[in-house]
Amino acid sequence: MVKKPKFSLSRQLLRPSWNKYNAFNFACKKLPNLNGKTLFQKKWIAKRETRSFHGPHLREYQFKNYFESKLLGMTSVNSPAENSKIPFMSQLYAPLESRLDIALHRAMFASSVEQAHKIIVSNKVSVNGIREKRAHLRLEPGDVVTVDPATVMRSVSSFKPTKSSASSAEATQDAQDTRDEKAVKAQTNKAWLEMGVEKFIPKPFMCVFAFIPSYLEVCFRTCSFVYVRHPIARANMSEVPSPFPERFHALAYNYYIRFRAMRQSLKKHQAKHMIPQRIHDPKFYRGPRSLYRNAAVSPSTPLPSDF
Amino acid sequence: MLSVRFQKVVKIVNRLSSTAAIQSNLPENPENEFSEESMEHSIPRISIAYNDVSPVHIPDESLSPSVRSHHLRRKMVEWLSSPEVKKAYHNKSTNIGFSRNSSAPFPLNPLFHPAKPLSHLLRQKIYEKYSKGDSLEKLAKEYKTCPQRVEAIVKLARINESWGNNGTPVLESYSRVMEKMLNACQKREEIQFNDDNDIAVKTTMVQRWKVLPENEPYTTKDAAKELGWPPLSELLASAEAAVSTKASCNDATYEPTKLVEKSPFMKSHRIYRMRDISSGDVWKRDIDGSLYVRRKKKVF
Predict the structure, then answer these.
(1) Do B105 and A214 make contact, defined as CB atoms within 8 angstroms?
(2) Above 0.85 for ipTM, yes or no?
């Protein structure tokens, strides 16, 4: 069966990618007209549009296992403005953002989610110091993810590195002495690293898609990032990156809520994540494991600071 | 006073020139040396949305037959050859997006406006303060974020340090370009993460009901008692106390540090600190093996 093209100009579906066809679709995008459609048609269109951007590489049954009917929001202590609303429905795709391949793309280390998937599967990524080959891994708050820098350069730069005179001389010698694949690979990696250190040229259209979501802390010098917390909805602010307004997420939520009885893994996951946020204070809450892991960095009781 | 007036004049001039630039599709304004604020305002927002882009007519002969026949492909080729899109294709600049009016990355979703990320300089400052002894909570209050983010910053700074110690090359050009593209915060005043006052709201899976007669008074304190949850004022007070007790440790309650013994055979890469619960003394075994004590002043 012939698959539908991913970056079709006629279908105009938005994808998590920096591809130029995708950029053109973003540039031309107008929200689909839902007037005169039945309720099911509205839900279906909303689901089609939003799912094409959020986890398009997932099958429907896989996404239904990720779906959580309980959407979390956060309000601040400072008195909120009168007309502020918390966009709860934009939290529909929040559980997906903790997936390792999607988080890698959000941290701008891969030009698309598929490329992030390939990087992880080819053993270039380590989570908390341990090599991780599972792209479906759900990141916990506090996890540190490091990517091999040469791989990042490969996925994020415009051009291949031009060989300098010194390295090309070495290359010809090496090629003559041994036709070792490892030596050639090591040299190309070195060339990519040199490009990252000295002269980096970003991929086309990267600047248009350039943002770092608030729940990630990214260090470009060491090609690593920390998943600080799960994304959460705030007053007049949604933290899940999405090109669609909240009403489209609301319709998609209404499409998926019918299938809640089918999900077996959901109850386990919900029991784990019952409470939204926890302040770093041991007296504050005793109970199930929260969004924030126990911070092992500072002791709970204060010590004299010059000690 | 004169310099302030000068800056204001400069800003107005830049705004005028920036609007002119958008209308005539000129490249960015020439650099302005007067102030950093006017620099930011002087970079005009370029939009590569299809309706905002300057139209380019390409004659039929120069197009390939497949592009000529398909109207959408033709549209795309024309879009790609417009000056704004060519800029986006090759550019590292900050102010290019899909809309002229908003700075949100996706104009159809104005509620998604992510905060500016931190630059490497700021992260180093925070890490230095942490290594001098400031607690996570204190730094979080100072830099208007949550302590979990400060912890993340500390972890990343440690990775950076270990790379420097091992001699692995750090990707400096990449980080410089990315920080410029993302418009990273260089000063503490620019930080706007909006997660500094996060307080958990306990959510029960089942709604709790309590039947009351109409005139019975029921306050938030009663509700808090019912849920087994401290009231908001207490939470705020405890959050502030967590920050202030650190400072109070410095003065009268503790005596100055004393070196107990120097034992170089007890060298390790970790610092060990212990608190004697009965007396309140704090002991510390340093990296070079020396043992210090800070005794609590006895109140008779």
Answers:
(1) no
(2) no
